[in-house]
Design a protein that fits this description.
This protein is α/β, with parallel strands linked by helices. The protein has 9 helices and 7 strands; from the N terminus they run ββαβαβαβαααβαβαα. Strands 1-3-2-4-5-6-7 form a 7-stranded mixed β-sheet, sandwiched between helices. Keywords: Hydrolase.
Length: 257
């Protein structure tokens, strides 16, 4: 497994809102091309609706965080991100956590809940992956073509600056490699004991509903599902009010138990 020897918690960009002493912190985990800014005001809205504190951060190599300290990912890179999140929780002194993860961030949320169950009281995922599908690879290949032929690169540079090139190819190159076709984290799911809300757009261009079914049926804890018709890979942007409503309902029920 690759190591990240140059990782430093101080080099991670964060946005933290602590308005509710004694209440949980919702930590938002961005997707493979995401960052703090691309969440817009969704985290603040969910925090206000649930009376929860909020923390959003740019993973290493993204947004305003420090650059990658390695140039090639292996099949364990998302597990490494879960380990890093565990280190960050200790650094931030946060031990009452609800995770909200989108895409890669959803997979990291699942892995963190499996590996560090004592710290995670609930998880919301959007478009999370637990294995590789052909539709995922097709979506990434389309993104590569857009990166090469449209203004996608310049749009990403607005948010990621000098990190953009390495960030994009770390994702696209890893997922489309022959090695990564065998990537699978289903073995971690039975270790997840907390409650889950599994969200996915029915028209998600990066994954089928088999991802939702696998997550829901293999975890040890209880789960509920929200599959949204006519929605693709970013439900919190495409159907924000519905996702806010269902996420608020989930968190309120979680905290009432």
């Amino acid at each position: 497994m690759q190591t990240n020897t140059k990782f430093s918690p101080e080099a991670i960009a964060i946005k933290r809102i602590d308005n509710y002493p004694g209440r949980p912190t919702i930590i938002f985990l961005h997707d493979s091309l995401g960052c703090i800014e691309l969440w817009r005001d969704f985290p603040e809205k969910l925090g206000a609706l649930t009376n929860c504190n909020v923390l959003v951060y740019d993973r290493q190599g993204y947004g305003k965080s420090c650059p990658f300290s390695y140039t090639k990912r292996d099949n364990y890179y998302l597990e490494l991100e879960a380990d890093i999140l565990n280190q960050l929780l200790s650094f931030w002194n946060i031990d009452n956590v609800i995770l909200f993860g989108h895409s890669d961030g959803g997979s990291i949320a699942l892995l963190t809940a499996a590996k560090y169950p004592e710290k995670i009281s609930g998880v919301i995922t959007e478009g999370a992956h637990v294995f590789v599908e052909e539709v995922t690879l097709n979506g990434i290949k389309e993104a590569i073509e857009l990166y090469k032929t449209t203004d996608l690169k310049s749009k990403l540079q607005k948010y990621h600056g000098d990190n953009t090139g390495e960030m994009f190819w770390a994702w696209a190159g890893t997922w489309t490699s022959d090695e990564f076709k065998s990537w699978n984290i289903e073995r971690f799911l039975p270790s997840i004991q907390c409650f889950l809300l599994v969200i996915q757009g029915r028209d998600d261009e990066y994954g089928t509903l088999e991802q939702v079914k696998t997550i829901s049926t293999k975890i040890a804890g209880k789960s509920s599902e929200l599959v949204i018709p006519n929605i693709k890979h970013t439900p919190h942007k495409e159907a924000p009010e519905l996702v806010l409503d269902k996420s608020t309902e989930f968190i309120n029920q979680l905290l009432a138990n």
